[in-house]
Specification:
By secondary structure, the protein is mostly helical. Helix content is about 70%, strand content about 0%. The chain is built from 9 helices and no strands. The chain has helices spanning about 1-20, 30-50, 50-60, 70-85, 90-115, 125-130, 135-145, 160-170, 175-180. Helix 1 (about 1-20) packs across helix 2 and helix 1 (about 1-20) crosses helix 5 (about 90-115). It is globular and about 55 Å long.
Amino acid sequence: MLEQLTQLVQQYGGEAIVKNEAIPNELNQDVMQQAGSSIFTGLQKIASEGNMEQLAGLFQGNNAVSGSNPVVQQLSEQLTGDLGQKFGLSTETASGVAGNLIPNVLGSLINKAKDPNQKGFDISDIVSAISGGNGSSGLMDALSKYGGQFGLDQNNDGKVDMSDAMAAVTKKGGIGGIFGKLFGR
């Protein structure tokens, strides 16, 4: 997933980084690589802290491009700190890069994850990469809380649990079907 994030940072980094006069040209590539790495590690940190609800919420609607989204805020703070520490960028410059880059990168990542025609952006792979492969229980908790809203209650018992997941797996073509339904694919 780091590779996909790096591609998106390259795609959106032109305006935020390359055309930014406060960032020396010789640092452009390093700043882009650091931005991709910071976003990825930031997402992993959010997952490791058990904030799967925030991550699940990120994939719903268009709030990934909102500066008021708690995930966007946390990632922006991390990237701002990383750019200041590693490259000596002023807080204003680093914050500007983060504020421009993170909503665009996350918005594109989510749109690509929701598009079944996009290769390399499968939602289950993204969740697995973010959670280090250990996100299934936290994700199941988030699914239990919000899953009924998305039609994931397979047996209509008023809760989303492992029996619903098993029913979805057998009916919908695997765990990708569960994630696909949750995230609108």
